[in-house]
Design brief:
Layout: H1 6-33, H2 39-75
């Protein structure tokens, strides 16, 4: 962590947390894909897919914010 750039620390932390959330969502979806698929299980599996997509979108947005912060620090724009 860089004490001179607390905003970059915050952005990096948010990005890392979003990626961890995404990973957890992927693992949940994978676990549901590995079970015997009753109608209820298929519904849970499909729901897990949508949660994974939401987590992926959140991680990508956090990455973009962190990258913008780095560009600002290193290149001034």
């Amino acid at each position: 962590m860089d004490k001179e750039n607390p905003e970059l620390d915050r952005l990096q932390g948010a990005y890392k947390a979003a990626v961890e959330e995404w990973i957890a969502a992927i693992r949940k979806e994978e676990a549901l894909a590995s079970t015997n698929h009753s109608v209820a299980q298929v519904d849970r599996w499909e729901e897990a897919y949508f949660r994974e997509e939401e987590a992926r979108t959140k991680a990508k947005a956090a990455k973009a914010e962190y990258e913008a912060g780095l560009r600002s620090k290193f290149f001034g724009f």
